[in-house]
Amino acid sequence: MVSLNSILKICLILFVLSSVNSCSKLGYLIDQGAGQAKILFGGDDNEDILKDPKVDEKIKRKIRKIGEYKSYFYKYWNKKPTDIYEETYFLKNKAVTYLVIASPHNKIKPKKECFPIMGCFPYIGFFDEKDALDHAKELEREEWVTYTRPVYAYSTLGYFDDNILSSFFYYNDLDLAELIFHELFHTIFFLKDDVELNENMANYFGKQMTYLYFKRSGEEIKKLKHREKSHSEVKKVVVQQVNALNKLFEEKKPKTKSESKKIFDNFMKKTFSPAVNLACKRFEVKKCNYSSKKWNNASLAAFLTYENKIERFEKLKVKLGLNLKEFFYYIEKKYSEFEEIDDEKTTFDQFLFKN
Asked: Taking the complete model, does pTM exceed 0.85, yes or no?
């Protein structure tokens, strides 16, 4: 028997599909909607899995751990638990989806993909790797630069009750907790049309909750934050270099993809890599993959989307003298104030960090 909740979910999917005018986008949403529905409705109840003698005990342990993390999360924030992660879906592949990020050949800026209800995103996802690679090839033919990467966890942002995915089981306990806290954060706070701020905020609160859950000592947290600070300083240099590259693109005004590639390669070799290597040495980052990674316009655009605002949350929290809960309530309050202002040019990001 189909539950009322499931019917509502199907209705929402159909509404989204019927709201799309573009034939190509409609085809995409039909395919991805089918893949999403399969994951949403094809899961097995966790209790049944835990009772099944054929299921590996390691898998059962991970499911129990996720249940513990979920219980802790909603209790900590004094929020009513949702039905998220009550079922588990076993994937055929290691990754659940594949993201395609695209950027112009003469600029480091992610191409926005917009959909009804869900808003706009700096990427487009595919459940089938071949579909993702085919889409990337199509974009490349249109002169975009692309970057395709596998994703092992994602959230439907509270629109649906997500299932545990078998891809979660590859994470160790610490990383699994941070992942679950990150994804659950989307269920209690999410801004439409601002993926960058949402992801950075979820990264920040997910990490802070992991410290609390595992009862890290002050000294341990200090060491972890020192390491994070070192990486953050190197990431700042990466961002600075990307800004410099964008300025160079503006000055040179390359007209073709091949011209842009020459400017990019020359900049990465003579300017980017030396600057990043020096920063890694200065801040004692031993595994400096920031300079060894094979970057392109799109992968740098993806880096900017997820990495450049996390530190700002900690600075604001310290400046306000608030604990984690108080800081979250402060953000909620500021968002309520933001919704009352009549200024379409101001983003919540700007409003939150204006002082």
From this structure: no
